[in-house]
Amino acid sequence: MDKTQYKDIYVFVEQREGAIQPVGIELLTKARELAERSNEKVVAVLLGHGIGSQAQHLIAYGADKVLYVDDPVLEPYTTEPYAQAITQIVNWCKPSVLLIGATTIGRDLGPRLSARLGTGLTADCTGLDISENGDLMMTRPAFGGNLMATIICKEHRPQMSTVRPGVMRAGAPDESRQGEVEAFPVKFDPSRFKVRVMQVVREQKNLVDITDAKVLVSGGRGVGNAEGFKMLKELAAVLGGAEVSSSRAMVDAGVMDHNRQVGQTGKTVRPDLYFALGISGAIQHLAGMEESDYIIAVNKDKFAPIFQVADLGIVGDLKKIIPLVTEKLKK
Ligand code: FAD
Q1: What is the distance between the alpha carbons of residues 150 and 232, in angstroms, rounded to a whole number?
Q2: Looking at residues 230-249, what average pLDDT do you find?
Q3: Which helix (H) or strand (E) holds 117?
Q4: Partner of 31 at 20 to 30 A CA spacing, among 127, 139, 274, 303?
């Protein structure tokens, strides 16, 4: 493969019902930073139906160009039309890098694309950088999260990576930025469309996303059981707009739902304030919350690793401390 034919950083910007997903903006911000160093362009790839008006918005967030495909077969998302469209874009445009958000859609699409394009995919990256010779350095936890591996896709292009929502920071829009917007013509092969969406039914409990919360009250094994979590819900209620989340230990115990789990195999969160209550601070948990702006930890073990990332640490029994804090806040 002649790698010199491949250039520019492409970002698949996911939209749902016309709304750009925040991870797309986070990836555009990161791509902009990488492109400044590698002297390349950032191209946003937007797929859907009736989505052309969103393109300008992506330029403000760092794209030099927006390639969009507007077709009824792209709404709602199904694997095959999306895979066909992006495969054609990549084969025609030859990007050096293709970044995808590790959402349910991105996790479905990424492996399909990498297989079709005959290139590698590094999933769930927590860091992206460019080496001196221009290779993308993709860092992700390995061996159960006990070490970080930096992976390079040396022989193939594009270099593909998925990144979970909330891992990269979204930059502010710059409305004065200029860029091109271009419709990309895709020839779909409907004979390969095997799935048709008949109806979309929303699961009520997924309506609150812990990645959107400004304040998270998170509980671990130290909270004990569902009764203990009632105490956390009371604290969250007096804080106004706070959500309750948890470590994996409480999800495995069946006390909390998986969509409330913070960490490597849960969600990556970055709230203004994160309470870690009865959470030891295992590396897999820290991976999902250590970028929070302010961390308050309560743990009865003064050597608990959570205190190494906490801004405020309280050594003591949370069952005594939390009701006192809730009472004080109520007043
Ligand atoms: P523990 O480690 O048991 O800690 C409980 C803490 O509570 C202790 O520090 C204890 O001192 C304190 N405590 C107990 N009673 C009280 C009290 N009354 N008052 C105050 N403090 C008290 N974990 C995640 O959280 N998220 C993930 O996404 C995740 N992914 C993983 C992926 C892999 C591949 C693997 C191998 C593990 C993963 N884990 C994950 C599990 C992780 O390694 C830990 O086992 C888990 O985070 C521990 O949860 P915990 O801190 O609640 O429990």
Answers
A1: 38
A2: 94
A3: helix 104-117
A4: 274
56 within ligand 1 shell (Cβ under 6 A):
no
CA 234 to ligand 1 center in whole angstroms: 22
Query: In 3D, which of 32, 328, 81, 317 has the Cα closest to residue 193?
Result: 81
Amino acid at 266: G
Q: To test the ligand 1 pocket, which listed residue (280, 295, 320) has its Cβ within 8 A of the most ligand atoms? A: 280
pTM, two decimal places: 0.77
Q: Is the CB of 267 under 6 A from ligand 1?
A: no
Contact 289 CB / ligand 1 (< 6 Å):
no
Each residue's pLDDT tens digit, 303-325:
999 999 999 999 999 999 999 99
**pLDDT digit string (tens) for 173-204?**
999 999 999 999 999 999 999 999 999 887 66
The C-alpha torsion from 284 through 288 and 293 to 299, rounded to 10°, is: -40
